User: Fold these one by one.
Assistant:
Number 1:
Amino acid sequence: MSTERMLLIRGGTVVTPETMLDADVLIVGETIRAIGAGLADLLPGASPLEAVGIPTPTGAALTRGKADVRSGALEVIDATGLLVLPGVIDPHVHIELDTGIYKTPDSWFVESRAAAFGGVTTVIDFATQFKGQTLQEAVEQRLQEAAPSVIDTTFHVMITDLPPGQEEELGVLEELGTTSIKLYTTYRPNYYADDATLLRLLEAAGRYGLMTLVHCENDALVTAQTQALIAAQETGWRYHAMARPALAEHEAAARVLFLAKEVDAPVVIAHNSSARTSAMVAQARERGQVAYCETGPQYLVLDSHVYEGSEPWRYILQPPLRDPGEPEALWQQVAQGAVDMLMTDHCAYTHEQKLAMDDFTKTPGGLPGLETLLPLTVTYGIGNGYIYWPDVARLLAANPAQIYGMWPRKGALLPGSDADIVLFDPGYEGIISAETLHSGAGYTPYEGLPVKGRVVSTIRRGEILVRDGVFLGQEGSGEFIPR
């Protein structure tokens, strides 16, 4: 007789990257045991349950055995009228960020709880290698910092101090389960990597089987434009976008793609703010290069008009928001399959930090967004006809899991996968407001925007974290996910 916790989600519509089907989901312990119609009728004294209508992936660790409910451990959730989505994976977030210049005063518990309210069950944050640290020390320090998380975590390792001749240190990352690194073409001097460094580290990362995520902005162009604005005494928040032109992103992305191809290294071009960038990545992939890209709601929903409004402080981020018309063009890239992942680049600087000085050169860049990723994607992607429900499962779960080596444990609604599930009400209509969000930032760049759909429940590895607006999880219950 099974003594593990059992949860049956009954009567919902299951959404996968391939299809939608009316089916029940049976969870035993932390994993999905079966998906199919009428599972409730099979439970007492049932034969081993198998998935119905969904193929089992190669390498999936199927949990088999009789599903006996005589222990009384079964809980049934009625999901009638709800969509059953895979738990969202946000592959690019910054919680408890310390840049060496600015520091977010947030906490892993608070921000991971906010993520759970938004249906996010796994995040990929960053383990920054500070000067003088080994890569292992950077990862171990980040593991300690992330321990209070209520959702699952893993890390990209930010390489800042790996001189020539020490590239073999990258070999430890597979053992640590952190098989991706982050590089920057800007932010001189603390993060910036010149072309020789980029080429050297891309080659080494490829050799050790690592994925490289690159922030692409031409540092010389950004620096020159910023200095020109300073000279003209045009440093208020409203000038922020002018300091970091789209051309800087286009040039740096093209250069990184070229260098990565030369050394046969897989690469992800981070947070595309422009349709042209995503198109370049798609073209490189069509030519046989292993290249991916990501964008987020900030670039798909907002544009540079907001810098002319009364609260431009809400929108200081790098890269900045682009010209009107760019969100539509970027959505078209998403619709055509050029964009692989949606993310938030979540960064919870506070209302007070943002308002400290009306000077974009002295305002920390980054926006909160973990809790609003799913509803914004649904509202402005599905609502405007750019994507469909299976695309949501692909862009927010399956693709990041596959690209970063977590699939099928994560990102999949399949037997043997972690039971990371979102129950979503597509009929809800509301307005985004900081008053109802849970991030420590205390503000949202999406204040007042209408949304359609809301998270009813978030389940992480079989545990209900959020139900009907109430947080039920426990601090520190998240796990590190080795990749």
Number 2:
Amino acid sequence: MRKLNFSRKRDAVLSVLRSTNTHPTAEWIYNNLKSEYPDFSLGTVYRNLSLFKEQGIVVTVANVNGQERYDGVVTAHAHFVCKKCGSVADVNCFNDSRDLDERIERLYDCEVDRHSLCFYGICSSCKHKSADSGQINDASV
């Protein structure tokens, strides 16, 4: 692993990512920083996110509509991805999931370093919008 040298832009990317629970895209991060750093580029964001992932301080949650969604919280927790609007939300009812890791280790005689759990479906907001507009809610979309 490469050691991360301090950089104001690098620190800003990580700070913006950790300041939200929306699980943003690289473009979202870029758009939130470009006014503060006029010489900032989207490539800078992608390079720093790649370094952060390599260091284990950022994870990719899911690929939604062709864009990676990032999370600055790397402790074990699950996510829910809405197939209609693309929102990504933390699911906090699996906070202590070490027992799941241990079960997999026993079943498959392996060592689990980490795991990712992601649920996909229709979020509450989209579900209610469909119901309010009289549309049939088809979860197979």
